[in-house]
Fold this protein.
Amino acid sequence: MADTLLIIDDSSTMRRIVKRTVRMSGLSFSETFEAESGEQGFEKLSADAIDVVLCDVNMTGMSGIEMVRKVRTELPERKDTRIIMVTTESSAAFVAEAMKAGADGYISKPFTPEKFTEKLTPLL
């Protein structure tokens, strides 16, 4: 299983819910980090090797899509980091935009532990 997880969301409540849901899914990480903005997430990825990122899309400042683009273009050393968008957006246009930006997948809100297992296991 992957060693490190980074949860990026501008809502501390949502970060807590994501963290709890990941734990309930049975997926395990040796360390879990949090960032409250796309900018903070990018800074964390610039400084540390992270295995999996769960990133909200709609955040103030740098959006999740903008953060993914920036990571994929400016941090080639993070090419193996799996970035999964966690969002209320689920339209075909959004999914195509997220994948084009460099996301490895997406999980729609509301989510369940089973959904995390289904979406993350193939990427790990």
In short: The chain has a mean pLDDT of 91. The first helix runs from residue 12 to 25.
